[in-house]
Specification:
alpha+beta, 4-stranded antiparallel β-sheet, about 190 residues, 4 strands
């Protein structure tokens, strides 16, 4: 009995798979054309009173954009070239503005400061002071314990974070982030 080459076996297998796929597609297409198939339900109703569901508050995109722009405007007024990030409660970036003249490192720093502020529900300047008691905090991925991040709260709970990076001091960065928070109260 003659052995078939690897190439011949691969080609034969590929042809067999292609034939199966073609047959499956044809069968699906044919069954899709029948009128006996019941329509799928339009939507599933969810009981909002169900105790198994969690709801959370967050900034809508307009509010996040307004806050970011207010922080950038405050920095521009002070003659500083910064980047501003607004993240949601889960630390996901909703808005990122890189100001004219801001350095390449400022976008990531702003995002990390915003993430840190919302994660601990505190300004990052306060969190930086905690490093003396717990220096391993700085090892948590995605965090940056430098001044410049401020949490946005609703009923005392964090719903977003604003981070600013690029000014010559973290205190200035944080002042601009606070201007973003203040813009949400208007």
């Amino acid at each position: 009995m003659k052995k078939t080459s690897v190439r011949a076996r691969v080609l034969t297998g590929t042809a067999a798979v292609a034939a199966l796929v073609a047959a499956s597609v044809g069968a699906v297409s044919a069954s899709a054309e029948t009128t006996d198939t019941p329509a799928a339900p339009a939507a599933v109703k969810v009981d909002t009173q169900n105790k198994n569901l969690a709801q959370s508050a967050g900034l809508n995109i307009d509010a996040a954009t307004r806050a970011a722009q207010a922080a950038l405007d405050a920095a521009n007024k002070a003659g500083q070239h910064v980047s501003v990030a607004v993240v949601d409660r889960d630390g996901v970036t909703r808005v990122l503005l890189k100001g004219d003249g801001a350095g390449p490192q400022t976008t990531e720093s702003a995002e990390r400061k915003a993430f840190t502020a919302v994660s601990w529900n505190a300004p990052t300047s306060e969190l930086a002071k905690r490093l003396a008691q717990a220096p391993n905090l700085k090892d948590i991925p995605g965090t940056l314990f430098l001044a410049g991040g401020a949490p946005v709260q609703s009923k005392g709970a964090p719903v977003a974070g604003i981070g600013v990076a690029g000014a010559p001091s973290g205190d200035l960065d944080e002042q601009f982030a606070q201007a973003g928070v203040a813009a949400l109260a208007k």
